[in-house]
Amino acid sequence: MKKIIAIASAAVLGLGVAACDSAAENEAEDQIEATEEVADEQIDAAEDAGQITDETADAMEADVEAEADAAEETVDEADPQ
Prior knowledge:
Elements: H1 2-18, H2 23-48, H3 54-78
Helix pairs in contact: 2-3
């Protein structure tokens, strides 16, 4: 049991080190998240105002999330670390 815990701890530590991002990458990802939040708020406001349906809002939010994911992936690939 202790061996499993030691191996799991080592794996988690390794993933933590591998997951370290540069300051520029973190800043870019923060900007992407902020942009996504603004878009989601605008979609929610349009939905609340009755300008779009629930289904349309869900589809739009899925598109925004997909675009944010793609942008974050691009940032991850561009940062050589």
